[in-house]
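Same chain as my last thread, 252 residues:
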Amino acid sequence: MNVKERQFLINRISDLANRAYCKNITTHTVFLNLYEQTIFQSISTSLQVSYKILGGYDYAERKLVCFFSCNPENIEDSDFMDLLHISNKNPKFSQSVSHRDYLGALMNIGIERHMLGDICIIGDEAYVYVLKSASTIIIDNLFDIRHNKVNVSKTDFRAIDFSSNVQEKIINIASNRLDSIVSSVYNISRAKANLLIDADKVFIDSKLINTHSHVLKPEDIVSVRGLGRFIYSDIEKISKKGRLVVKIRQYI
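reply #2:
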């Protein structure tokens, strides 16, 4: 994101916050990616209005920010987004499709990326979080994913069981520094892990982290662009050689 794009986003966020504050109404952003969420967090303390960050489920990567003057307990994800279920009409004859296939098909019918939250693939089905304004367009116009004929319908936010997409993993590391853990989780060298951090590709709880030695805390959600996400659980034990035995929960 260049300087002009960054300033445009800051201005847009500030405008939405000011509207909520001055007019006593609820406003919200579009879905923000990890870079955009980092920018929001850098200015969040200067805003005069309350806000809530929503993604549809606990470990969402793409999120929107809602600004409001009412009780935050009354704000729900479903107030601003829908969850769409995409399923194959003929599962016996369907081809395997990827996240890129789903995203491409949605964009081909005129849906812009900022209108879409996370696309969660479970088996041969997908669940997509979308702005309410995009739901009807998708339901009425999405018929194919790659060569597969599909059905699209709204579903309940409790419809997804994410347990099948998360795998517990035990890693053995010298320290719980960010570069050491990223290296071990993705089976890459420490040098490559550091390059990813330097290239602004590593985020913790939706905030960009550039420090190789950053120490992770229990339940930190680490996103590495191009490689995936994992949740850092905690140190299970220390081996006789002084190495840390750590549990993580990795999205597969």
